[in-house]
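Moderator note: this is an archived Q&A kept for reference. The question asked for a predicted structure of one protein chain; the sequence and the answer are reproduced below.
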Amino acid sequence: MKKYYTRACNFYYGKISKNLIKKKLALPLCGNKEVGFDKIEIFLKEKNKITSKIIEIKEIHHQKPHIKKKIYIDLKKIISKRKNFNKPSIMGILNMTPDSFSDGGKFNKNNKFFKRIDLMINAGAKIIDVGGESTRPGSSIIAPHQEWNRVKKVIEKFKSKYPKTLLSIDTRKSQVMVNSIKYKTDIINDVSSFNHDPNSYKVIKKKNVWKIIHHMQGTPQTMQIKPKYENVLLDIYDFFEEKIKALKKTKAHTSKIILDPGIGFGKNLKHNLILINKISLFHSLGFPILIGTSRKKFIKDISGKFDTKERIGGTISSVLYTLSQGVQIFRVHDVEEVNQGILVYKKLLEQ
């Protein structure tokens, strides 16, 4: 069986992009005229063999009819605007846990969490992602009531204090989802992609909330034990595609889907770099893309002796690189520094 995939590539930015799009020499990425492209990479997967070729947009009509049809279907999704996420959005991380990999125990006591939220929103965060259970490699599963007790104070008061900020709950537990939705949570961020708790689908399918389809190979306990893929990029694309189909079969609200390839969740350095390098492939699924590279181990793997505790340099570098490929949402710890990087980067592209 043959399967084709379409990835936008060869990007232009700012005034150059707008000018090329106006002259119909480039297409807007996700409806954003500030990022245009004039080439695509076509992948072909046939049995165990994967090949690819890069062609110019103007060459599409020379392709075989069945390939051309697939490309045009994908292009329609690639150039369409993304609902609510046309501009870069920063998702600030609030870990209400004692054991998260980089900031466990820092904000879960004495109402420090509201000061932290204030700081992140003032620094430019449009979304706050609240988590009560660590999913770092090797972490332990906790009971739903224990997880809810950790996040309860934040979730219950969040919308009254921050009505214009999107609230995301980072949980794998259906009961925590139910409780959070009662308090007008906007986004359900389940790193297991609703596999951990069999009741999760029942909870979310009729709810008009954003659902993050997150890729993780294995579980937090097993994910970093020799992760293996046939082709990490296409395997995760297929995973997203199947998850979207599964949600549609349950008659769930599927207009509000966000895709997260799960950097560091069941991936080694090579896997992470491939995903970051060609993340624009996922635009052909037609949904906003979220990426979480903040303080991840791959930064240490690359920087070696130049590794730092917060890994801000590596985080910002990966954010800007994926921003240049049209990624819309960035899940980070250091909101102010990342926002500064994005603002300077965008200003430079305007010149």
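Archived answer notes: DSSP finds eleven helices and twelve strands in the chain.
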